[in-house]
Amino acid sequence: MKIPVIMLSGFLGSGKTTLLLSLLKESKRRGLNPGIIMNELGAKDVDGYILQESTGTRVEKLLDGCICCSRKEELPRSLTALLARRPDIIYIELTGVADPDEIVRSLLTPPLADRLQLHHAVTLLDAENVLEYSSRFSSDKQLVRTLRQQITTADLIIVNKSDLVEPETLWKIEKMVYKQNSESEIVFTHYSQINLAPLLTGIAVRGLKDSAPRRGPGNVSGAALQRMNTGSSSGSSATAVHEPVSGTDSSFSQVAAVTLTVPPAWAGSLRREELEQFLQQWGYSLLRAKGHVRLAGEDSVQLVQLAGNRISWEASSYPGQPYIVCIGLNLDEKAISRSWAALFS
Ligand SMILES: Nc1nc2c(ncn2[C@@H]2O[C@H](COP(=O)(O)OP(=O)(O)OP(=O)(O)O)[C@@H](O)[C@H]2O)c(=O)[nH]1
Q: Where is the CobW C-terminal domain (predicted)?
């Protein structure tokens, strides 16, 4: 019996982990044993920690590079390890700059092809930013190509973050998607809330299956569109570890990750506004930031996220040394490190 795979792709911060959280909760509710592979560009496992903390599910992590290129050879190894745990369904969350077509190719190549079956290729789009990508990233043609590939490879496209845009923008996005992929289903939603049933149709607990999983009928309708409050707000030596995302056939040649750590002596001294200013000064060259920090005057550790130039905060129980992973296009690593160190001088 082949194990069904649902692949989640989409640019940085588009809502993949938010969707995966819902899928995991729904999988558990159905008594399924899910296997998860999560790939992160940075060396820190921010999303894996969020998933483990919220659902208790073990996550197979592939950090510090992209499994469509620089860490390509690690995917078969991780999938083989995961299969030994006899999952009913495997979710693969790609990095925001991964070419999903490369992953589909790996899944269709023996020996993986003998054991796995691609059930759905889902791509999330950030409604607030997706129409700007071609002009914003015009200096990185490879990245623009990869983002197109994310649209053309999908059989389900979820236009997420629709709470942040006007209906006109959604129509433009629909037109843009249709031009590139007229076959896929497209839904509009916020916080990745969609009807999960069609995605999981045909997936059953091992032993209860009498045939190979089949795709369900379409109709993955999103939640009713409505404006909603995002909950976002308008934050020895500090170290910066640069993680060049290498690989000869890299799909994201100019995208790199930097991990910034807070010196132990300064933990709990950062002010929220200071950190927000630090993150916002790089404009769109800082594509994504996420990490756990301890702020002055706050009891709990905070999970801070920057996506599409918006910053959000939520309480976290992360027990380790505070850090932030910054992912950017042509980021000036020296300037970032200097600016970060200045926060602690
Ligand atoms: N306003 C708004 N925020 C959202 C929505 N969906 C997700 N977010 C927020 O956007 C940020 C990024 O969401 P994630 O689900 O982590 O995105 P991702 O695609 O997994 O991000 P990476 O894996 O880092 O590429 C988080 O702070 C989410 O809470 C939405 O529909 N509307």
A: 255-344
